[in-house]
Amino acid sequence: MHRDIQTDHWIAVCQLDDIVPNTGVCALLNGAQVAVFHVDDGDSRVFAIENYDPNSEASVLSRGLVGSVGERIVVASPIYKQHFDLQTGECLESPAHSVGTYPARIADGKVWVGL
Fold first, then answer.
1. Which of 19, 43, 75, 103 is most buried, taking the most CB atoms under 10 A from its CB?
2. What pTM was estimated for this model as a whole?
3. Which three-class secondary structure string do you get for the chain?
């Protein structure tokens, strides 16, 4: 369920150092809760997905555990432990419950999310 949108507007969410490596934070962007993750596995990268977990019907994905399943970088929901691919938003256990993604980047030491 990747959002196919033109990214005309980037919003600075926080400093990269504000997010502990391999964890996430929640940001409110244009009224939407976005889970933003800082993954550091030798390379610092950022990912942004919807914060709402459709399996538990709660906005909790930013609090999940970051890890990997095979080659995929995922976050495990803190409630029922389903895994969401941080690049695609796909729920590995239940693809029908996948979440949307947002483009994210690091520039000038800040985390930026595209809307």
1. 75
2. 0.92
3. CCCCCCCCCEEEEEEHHHCCCCEEEEEEECCEEEEEEEEECCCEEEEEEECEECCCCEECHHHCEEEEECCEEEEECCCCCCEEECCCCCECCCHHHCCCEECEEEECCEEEEEC
